[in-house]
Amino acid sequence: MTYIKPTFRHPALPKNKISFAKADYEGAISTLCAGCGHDSISGSIVQACYEMSIEPHKLAKISGIGCSSKTPTYFLSNSHGFNSVHGRMPSVTTGANMANRDLIYLGVSGDGDTASIGMGQFVHAIRRNLNMVYIVMNNGCYGLTKGQDSATADFGSVSKPGSVNQFQAIDLVGMALELNATFVARSFSGDKTQLIPLIKAAMSHPGFAFIDVISPCVTFNNNKGSTKSYDFVRDHIEATSVLDFVPQKDEITVSYEEGNSATVPLHDGSLIELRKLSPEWNPTDRYSAFVRLQKAKMKGEILTGLLYIDPESTELHDLMGTTDVPLNTLREAELCPGNATLESINQNFR
Amino acid sequence: MSAIVNDMVIRFANVNGTGSASANSMFSKAIFRMGLPVSPKNIFPSNIQGLPTWYEVRINENGYLGRRAGIDVMVGINPQSFAKDMASVKPGGYFVYDSTKPLYEDMMREDIHFIGIPMMKISMDFFEVPRLQQLFKNIIYVGALAALLDIEMEVIKQIIEEQFEKKPKLVPPNFKALDAGYNYAKEHYDCPLNVRLERRDNVGDHILMEGNEATALGAIYGGATVAGWYPITPSTSVVKAFETHCKKLRIDPKTGKKNYAIVQAEDELAAMGMVIGATWNGARAFTSTSGPGVSLMSEFIGLAYFAEIPVVLVNVQRGGPSTGMPTRTQQPDILSSAYASHGDTKHILLFPSTPTECFEMMADCFDLADRFQTPVILMSDLDLGMNDHMTKPLKWDDNRTYDLGKVYDAEDLEKLEEYGRYLDIDNDGICYRTIPGTHPTKGSFFTRGTSRDEYARYSESGAVYVRVVNRILKKWETAKKYVPKPQMYQEEYKSKKGIIFFGTTTYAALEAMEMFEKEGIKLDAMRITAFPFNETVEDFIEQHEEIFVIEQNRDAQLRSLIINELDIIPAKLIKAVNYDGMPITAQTIMDLIMEKLSVAINN
Predict the structure, then answer these.
(1) Which of A42, A99, B23, B283 lies in the 20 to 30 Å Cα band around A145?
(2) How far apart are CA B213 and CA B233, in angstroms?
């Protein structure tokens, strides 16, 4: 069932620049398990949209099937949402984006929805540099069907009933880098200070912005021996940087120590300010991201943070040369060439 | 023997990938411009280069456009298929071949005429580059045929000039090759042959166009801006033509940017996902595929049906099942399209029978899809899609506006107290949708493939579910009034027996009806143009005792659909089917029905 929250807002609630309270970005009450990592991610999405002063109707949330894909009901109830079919969120988002290039497209998926049934669509959305935010709520298991291993479950990870995973994990972040994704990040559902600025930066990025968020499944994959449990992730987490997102026209308020800091300007005038935690890594150098990722892997660390961003990213519409106006606003005058034109076409077929 | 004028079947046996297609279509176009109805068919392999391919043209001044069996003139260019090609010529017919190398004498038949033209030798005498020798060999046989069949050379030359308008340097060598073939035939044979052509004025203002091209134009005129697609024979040329015409007709004059977006998807699933995403977001979108693609898209089609999202899908049918006969024609996807996807689903189908109808119905598909917020499938086939057909010129009513169906805009939403996506306010089963981005706080809803209530909220209540699926069925009833009516071929019923046909069977069925007439057999006829079937279809079936359903598939799928949907006693509908992958002929229809009529009489 979908539970609806009361819509009454206390008049004294703080508002953002466009006079919306944070509550205006919330959704229905979650029906996920208490403590589910996904709910924290939903919370970060709400916070990011509130702080970015996004008009709710200028964002569309699209998902596939699974626990993760249920979450769009639990945030941004003033935005249109689409819970499509399993593994097919990227194609629906592609079509939606083709129809209206002016909205922000927030795709939500899970590890089953992306790394198994949806792998084909995931990689092709990357290839095309579709302008969207792609969040994978990654818990290494199939929750709705009661805890089977997913394709991102690490080799050797122990499941709740005690079996040891014999198969190699698909590392979505490594894959996205390999496929030249123009924005690649990983985060942890329990680390909102990192996740919120990442979501904001991803929404400002013109192109495919991928965030793999480790999000423990409290019911089926939070046991001892699991590499996706809260405890394991907290013990093994390692970040590339401490980052802050500075929206367009805002002043930079954080200052990081010189030498370690980097500023990445985004297309829309906003900035990513970050303090690098590793000297050999550079956020705009894909190769250094690879190296850093591999090193972390060898050490058994879960590397989080912004891994790579291409500030020169050109999104699909610009690659294709689509008109600047959303295609869904065009009508007969622009679309229908009329009978006189048809007459001359006929003439070519006589 | 008196000459046979303007009634022949000529077949070209070529090797695919040798440039023969362009010469062959030049041949057809020339005859068409002599005022003669032509009906060319490509019979091609699923291959790029080196295998046998045929091009068969029926020329008939009375305008019979269906295929006819029996070959009067065979142009045998392909040694691989000589034996088979020679065997397929009618007694008394002609075998025109490349006599650069002699034919094996033991292959030759005594009951047909052999006309040797040293095509390759002539070509080698005139042209040095091997590739050109190959290409001009094709023009040489067109020239020879002009002499043999009495095709007007000026007409062919004009076509060549038009074809190479932008490369005028290529005109003289083409003329040279054409003249060489013509002169050789004139000098060595008694031209024209007994089977010959004469100018008539029997094509009016018709055009000669492939169905897929017309479908693409229908998409442009119908306002499609987004196409998601995956290549598959025989539908590929729909999107190809869409793109070609868009490049001319859909460029923003101020910015030079595209008023369209075509995405070649990773597979058919994604192609359909893109269409659904785009139409959900308020654009008109379509995809084009064939049977295997429809199978792959089925899950998404069910989503669109249940979540009530407009979808336009073109199914250019080919021989199934599985990969089947990918380069042969059939009508084998009636049931799989009508009921695509799991659960209780049914979809609006339109059945064009000419390129003109491909154009008109494709444009209609967008209005129907938006009006009923559901998938609409244009049921074309390989014969219609990939062959040139003589068809009425395409026309567009400039006063026509797009029917975008029930969509609330921001102003509507302002006035509303409460919005429910699936509320049946008008009691016709069709609800009001909103497009993302319309209003900051009103009109948003959650689209889902799960059961939901009138406010788009997830629901597991049986009562809610039944209410929703019954309301969708009400929409189906409403649709019966909107889809095209069947075509009747008599003012009033004159018989208790009737025939039903649809799509490309129409050409042969019309010819067969004249044959029945001559035999004194009275049959009423109805052409199905859409599913759901409306009252006229029901009435036709009710008013007749015995009805032959003519189809190009093994199991008479339209018959099954009619029986299932209209609760007909199955024995009343008798199947008359042809499914060898070749377009059905009038004679086949005649034979199938005569056989069953006599069974009925004997009983």
Answers:
(1) A42
(2) 14
